Automatic annotation (TrEMBL):
Residues 12-421 form the Amino acid permease/ SLC12A domain. It comes from Marinilabilia rubra. Residues 462-578, 586-657 form the SLC12A transporter C-terminal domain. Belongs to the SLC12A transporter family. Gene3D superfamilies: Amino acid/polyamine transporter I. This is Na-K-Cl cotransporter. Keywords: Membrane, Transmembrane, Transmembrane helix, Transport.
Length: 720
């Protein structure tokens, strides 16, 4: 199989150089020189090539870090930034290369018909597409050999141009736009730049190379260098043989000033065909790699197959030929041509970003033989973005929208891969920076819930996870914690349990952390985990758990609650004996005893529930019991003032009971309420008896949230 692979010259250098020396060189380069002058042209060539050279540096860095398999740019990006971003660029890249085949074939057909008017444009295009397609279908090597022939024709045309003579006295300006010209420098730059974007042609042949990590950098550098030398030399010839007006007006001016004009015509045809061949070889291989990674739907899995000793992707080639034929028959791709160029430039930009990120993060796995400072990659990425807008701002926006649409589609499919990528390293750097910036004691104004949920097996106490998910959405974090008995579960199985819980939560669309530990009993394990869990200042500040119904567990359960409180953590106990009937319209009662103590935390929890997308509508009512009508008026006045000052949309209800029978009032007034919040006294040695008595007195309330606020959090300041 290795003997059938391509080397540097045939696999990378030749297709890249032939795409660089394309139709723009023959048909538009005189126009460039005529519009911006000699020095202006040399600046455009240098600036354009600098961007592609910086991209080549990034390509070389990625290619020499690990083996590059089939797929070229898609493979490089997907293995660094993930399959979603790789696919979001790989699909547009395939389409761009496919339509490029059509554009080059149409350019060849138009030039041929111009010389031989008797020919039919569409017939020539269809025949040309089929002949190139047959060549690509059955032998990659034969196609490469055809490119050698085309390269020799282009070489002959350049020699003929050098040996030619002036057709008039040249009065071309050295710099600047001549007075009679209306095209500006950046407009000319936008026309010329696509001429130097052929570096990806060779990269896309990565799967057909004997040694991709050597051939891709070397072949790409050589193609860029020789292309630059040719483009720097041609303006000197053109400027010395015709004046600006002639260069602008005659697209085939090279034919007149060359030693043999026919060689230029052959060069135009060769350039068109070679560019078409390069794209026809590269596009199916990108599609093959996309299919093998399941980016393309499984219905099209036949596109992943390779045939013969050269592993030719015939399915992808046939599809590419079919799309090309339809495009040629329809006849006009000018409207989408700018968008296709944007896809190429977006790919170059992301390649620069990929190399820059890898180098900046200094990942241990990124050890390229060819080292490039991340600054150069960043400059290359910025250059690509700038050029995209300079060439066509609307096309740039359309291409970005298309790429984002593909990215969203791929993310929804939740593709699974067998390789890692750089995203975890990027996130780790961000997390590291953020952790080091966090203060040990957060300001009350920046308080966010970081909830540790002791749910046990998620299925058994799903209501705890569901409630924590509602509180933490868009505002904080929560961790689903499970304590397993040491006697029954080995440490080796802990990782597997965590993995299973994570997968289960992902299926339920729950975004949370997961922690599983072993302990002699759940109460000791919970205390241990509450002490040890967290990273630096980012530790849980709130504990959410259910209740225990086993009488033998009352004392250790109360000790555990006391431990949480002494550890300066809020404690929330959710007794949910019946499921919440309707998430779209939830009624919550907060039984109020004042802002101090638990009152502030209950107000914050109510506000978070009311503003969470988890619940469509939450109606919060603050309820308070007083002993006289006079006290009711004063309490109502104080509550109005408080609710106004903390800017929350809560209702209020003052109940009068001269006998002070609080629990009868609570049971009667909140019987039909979906959730009741009650504050607990400070946990102490007698907490078990107190809590059991409280549960007995509120037994008629089906859903209760008992709250104990940490004495270390100033909820009054949070609400102010």
């Amino acid at each position: 199989m290795q003997n059938n692979k391509l080397g540097t010259f045939g696999g990378v250098f030749t297709p890249s150089l032939l795409t660089i020396l394309g139709v723009i060189m023959y048909l538009r380069f005189g126009w460039v020189v005529g519009n911006v002058g000699l020095i202006g042209t040399l600046m455009i060539v240098t600036l354009s090539t600098s961007i592609t050279f910086l991209t080549s540096l990034s390509i070389a860095s990625i290619a020499t870090n690990s083996k590059v398999k089939a797929g070229g740019a898609y493979y490089m990006i997907s293995r660094s930034l993930g399959v979603e971003i790789g696919g979001a660029l790989g699909i547009p890249l395939y389409l761009a290369q496919t339509f490029s085949v059509a554009l080059y074939v149409m350019g060849f057909s138009e030039s041929l018909v111009a010389v031989f008017p008797v020919l039919n444009f569409k017939v020539v295009g269809v025949i040309t597409t089929l002949l190139l397609g047959v060549l690509a279908l059955f032998s990659t090597k034969a196609t490469i050999r055809a490119q050698y022939f085309i390269l020799s024709i282009i070489g002959l045309s350049l020699i003929s141009l050098v040996l030619g003579k002036p057709i008039e006295n040249s009065e071309i300006e050295m710099w600047g736009v001549p007075e009679h010209m209306s095209v500006g420098f950046w407009q000319v730059f936008a026309v010329f730049f696509p001429a130097v974007t052929g570096i990806m042609t060779g990269v896309n042949m990565s799967g057909d190379l004997k040694n991709p990590s050597r051939s891709i950098p070397l072949g790409t550098f050589l193609a860029v260098a020789i292309g630059y030398l040719i483009y720097m030399g041609l303006p000197l010839i053109l400027a010395g043989r015709a004046d600006a007006a002639t260069l602008v007006e005659d697209p085939l001016i090279m034919r007149k000033i060359a030693f043999w004009g026919g060689a230029i015509l052959l060069g135009v045809w060769g350039a068109s065909l070679s560019s078409a061949v390069g794209s026809l070889l590269g596009a199916p291989r990108v599609l093959q790699a996309l299919t093998r990674d399941n980016v393309v739907p499984r219905k099209m899995s036949v596109l992943a197959n390779g045939y013969g000793p050269e592993n030719i992707p015939r399915g992808g080639t046939i599809l590419t030929i079919a799309i090309t034929l339809v495009s040629v028959i329809l006849g006009d791709l000018d409207a989408i041509a700018p968008v296709l160029t944007m896809f190429f430039l977006a790919t170059y930009g992301i390649l620069n970003v990929t190399a820059g990120i890898e180098r900046f993060l200094k990942s241990p796995s990124f050890r390229p033989k060819f080292k490039v400072h991340w600054i150069f990659s960043l400059v290359g990425a910025v250059g690509c973005i700038a050029v995209m807008f300079l060439i066509h701002a609307v096309a740039t926006i359309l291409s970005v929208v298309f790429i984002l649409a593909v990215l969203i589609w791929l993310r929804r499919r939740r593709l699974k891969t067998t390789w890692g990528d750089v995203r975890s390293g990027m996130l780790l750097q961000v997390v590291r920076y953020a952790l080091l910036q966090l203060k040990p004691h957060n300001d009350p104004k920046s308080w966010r819930p970081n909830i540790l949920v002791f749910s046990g097996a998620p299925i058994k106490r799903w209501h705890l996870i569901d409630f924590a998910n509602g509180l933490a959405q868009e505002k904080g974090l929560f961790t689903v914690a499970t304590i397993l008995p040491e006697a029954k579960v080995s440490q080796e199985k802990i990782y597997q349990y965590e993995k299973q819980i994570k997968e289960y939560l992902i299926e339920k669309n729950i975004r949370s952390l997961v922690r599983v530990v072993r302990a002699q009993n759940p109460f000791v394990g919970a205390q241990y985990l509450s002490n040890a869990y967290g990273l630096g200042p980012l530790v849980p500040n709130t504990i959410l758990l259910g209740d225990t119904t086993d009488a033998s567990h009352h004392e250790p359960y109360s000790d555990m609650i006391n431990h949480f409180y002494q550890s300066r953590k809020n404690v929330i106990i959710l007794r949910d004996e019946e499921p919440v009937p309707n998430r779209s319209n939830l009624n919550v009662d907060i039984w109020w005893g004042g802002l101090k103590g638990n009152g502030g935390l209950m107000m914050v929890l109510g506000y978070m529930m009311q503003n969470s997308p988890h619940w469509q509508q939450v109606n919060i009512t603050i309820k308070m019991v007083v002993t006289s009508q006079k006290a009711a008026l004063e309490a109502e006045k104080n509550l109005d003032k408080l609710l106004s000052s903390i800017r929350v949309d809560f209702k209020k209800k003052i109940l009068v009971s001269e006998k002070g029978d609080f629990f009868n009032l609570l049971s009667n007034d909140s019987q039909a309420t979906d959730l009741v919040m009650l504050g607990l006294k400070k946990p102490d040695a007698g907490f078990s008896g107190y809590f059991n008595d409280l549960k007995r007195k509120t037994a008629s309330i089906p859903r209760k949230l008992f709250v104990v606020a940490s004495h270390d959090i100033a909820f009054k300041e949070i609400l102010s």
